[in-house]
């Protein structure tokens, strides 16, 4: 079966090369037909598990779509390469480069939404391998949506990036990303999510050892409709008070309250950093903060 598919692939390549030839009666290469034949060849190679040859065929298809000035089809072809190259983990960085090139083509073609979705898809696939690159891709995708005034989509992707920044312990950047998320949620008037982001900000700032910044986040959030007196507000006020007074029991109670303990999990644990709060911290994992950056 594999040999048959490889033979079929070579037959399609031969047809493609014929489409590219010119003559006295055919002045221009038929790029559209050549691209179509290379697409068929690529599928045959892929079915035969000849992934390197499939990659070469897809690249030829993309090249001839570009020559034919059909950038959307060229970009789609480069995105398809992602699903070929991911067969080998070491090929993923190369695949991501093609995605980024496809993104530029989508933008030039006037289809930025498709560009952002391709970056998001690439981010999901590279995330288990390279968190730093996933952050970059999610942030780029968010930027594309933001430029198109699609803030709901942009803020969702920013949330993905924020979670990974926490996991990478890049907390200064996470704090900046969270503030941007919060501003977007405020702009689209999703105030409950603003509350959640405030909670996340407080936890991040305390983990950074910046009590002043944590306190400022809560105070600034008093202007949000419904925040003052809410469960989120009371919990953070209590947490900050316990932290300031080095009251380990009070911090423990807040960190084990349903508001924090049962949040949906993409979790990083972080101890408070205050000597009084750190006392007996090995007694239980629940004496640590559970830092969650929601993507919803």
From TrEMBL:
GO cellular component: Golgi apparatus; SNARE complex; vacuolar membrane
GO biological process, one term: vesicle-mediated transport
InterPro entries: NSF_attach, TPR-like_helical_dom_sf
Keyword Membrane: yes
Membrane topology listed for this record: Peripheral membrane protein
Subcellular location: Golgi apparatus; Membrane
One function term, GO molecular function aspect: soluble NSF attachment protein activity
Residue ranges of coiled coil: 161-188
Role, per record: Required for vesicular transport between the endoplasmic reticulum and the Golgi apparatus.
Family, per entry: Belongs to the SNAP family.
Protein name: Gamma-soluble NSF attachment protein
Organism: Amphiprion ocellaris
């Amino acid at each position: 079966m594999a040999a048959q598919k490889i033979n079929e692939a070579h037959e399609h390549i031969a047809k493609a090369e014929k489409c590219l030839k010119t003559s006295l009666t055919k002045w221009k290469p038929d790029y559209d037909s050549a691209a179509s034949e290379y697409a068929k060849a690529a599928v045959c190679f892929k079915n035969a598990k000849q992934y390197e040859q499939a990659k070469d065929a897809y690249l030829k298809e993309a090249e001839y779509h570009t020559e034919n000035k059909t950038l959307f089809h060229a970009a789609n072809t480069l995105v398809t390469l992602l699903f070929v190259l991911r067969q080998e983990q070491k090929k993923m960085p190369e695949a991501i480069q093609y995605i980024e090139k496809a993104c530029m083509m989508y933008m030039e073609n006037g289809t930025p939404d498709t560009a952002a979705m391709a970056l998001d898809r690439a981010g999901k696939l590279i995330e288990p391998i390279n968190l730093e690159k996933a952050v970059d891709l999610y942030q780029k995708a968010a930027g594309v949506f933001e430029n198109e005034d699609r803030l709901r989509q942009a803020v969702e992707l920013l949330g993905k990036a924020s979670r990974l920044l926490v996991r990478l312990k890049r907390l200064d950047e996470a704090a900046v990303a969270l503030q941007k998320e919060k501003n977007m949620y405020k702009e689209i008037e999703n105030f409950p999510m603003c509350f959640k982001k405030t909670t996340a900000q407080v936890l991040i700032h305390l983990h950074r050892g910046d009590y002043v910044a944590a306190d400022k986040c809560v105070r600034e959030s008093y202007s949000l409709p419904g925040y003052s007196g809410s469960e989120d507000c009371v919990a953070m006020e209590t947490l900050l008070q316990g932290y300031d007074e080095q009251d380990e029991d009070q911090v423990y109670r807040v960190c084990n309250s349903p508001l924090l303990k049962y949040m949906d999990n993409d979790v990083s644990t972080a101890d408070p950093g205050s000597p009084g709060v750190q006392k007996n911290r090995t007694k239980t994992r629940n004496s640590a903060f559970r830092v969650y950056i929601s993507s919803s």
